[in-house]
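Protein data sheet
==================
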Amino acid sequence: MPADRAALASRFLSMGPSPLPALLLLGAAFLGTSAHCEEGHRASYYKDGQLHVNVLGTPEEEPLTTGHWDFKPSWSKTGDKLVFFRRLVNDKEVSNWKTAICIINANGTGFHQITDGTHTDFNQTWSRDGTNTPIWNRRHPGRKGYQVMAGRIGGKPGDEIALTGKNYHAWAFTCLTDGRILVGATPPKQKRGYFLMTPNTDGEPKYERIQCELDKEGVLARVTLSVDESKVSFEYQRGFKHSVPGRTLYLADFDAESLKMSNFKPFANEEGALVWFAYPRWTRDQSAIVYHAGRRLFLYTPADGSTVQVSTDGNADYRYPHGEATPK
């Protein structure tokens, strides 16, 4: 999570639960919608600093984690594990947080910490290549850039390895079944952009630039691949001055062979209302996208263009949803 984006988001959320401006800006399309979903749409998400696994649109039961500030669960493709980060040291500048990457079974058992908590480790996910490898981003010490890291289930702090170098910025979004990783990066001798990166533990990774018309006029953030890897969803920020509230959520076609994103379709906050619309993530059957906006969770169904609210507690802060068995 880039520091200035997260800091703006934190200031927005500090307005308190369900701030009136946010409710107004969410627009008439959301007003009066009841929380419901298709049967079987399970997701993991953050609620008031604790992690839950739940059927979207139903009241929560007991959280998986308590007593800590746990963020951004990502569900393994095998469906049995979550990886998340735990905030151990707070700071008004999010890039100064100290965090630990942790793994827990989706039923709440088997918790273990795989980094030592002395780093700024963010936005973890899983590989899709059958190895169930946790992947995340670590801030360069004393610098604003990040590098991509990898660990293993059952690993101990210090076992993790770097997949990218310390002399440039690389940020992992999501992984492909062929082992490549979709990243935003500024590789050596290349301009900023979005790439499919092939890790190379014996040398420099390979970077293949993705064609994307939108990146000429703004920033793509929190990019996620559909289950069949034919589509992407992401937040889009117009312009290059970082801002979290006001982003638009997009759906687009993706071709890993031709290295291209195309057919861009905005589906949430096209008008750019100053609300934190974020974290679009696919459901397991790829029929819908869940995201958070103004402390609530919503479910968008591309087939009919409908959007419904699927969080049930109006006094809670919901964030970072993630569909069952669908690594971002």
In short: Residues 3-13 form the longest helix (11 residues). The chain has one domain: 3-15+63-286. DSSP finds two helices and 23 strands in the chain. The two ends are 14 Å apart (CA to CA).
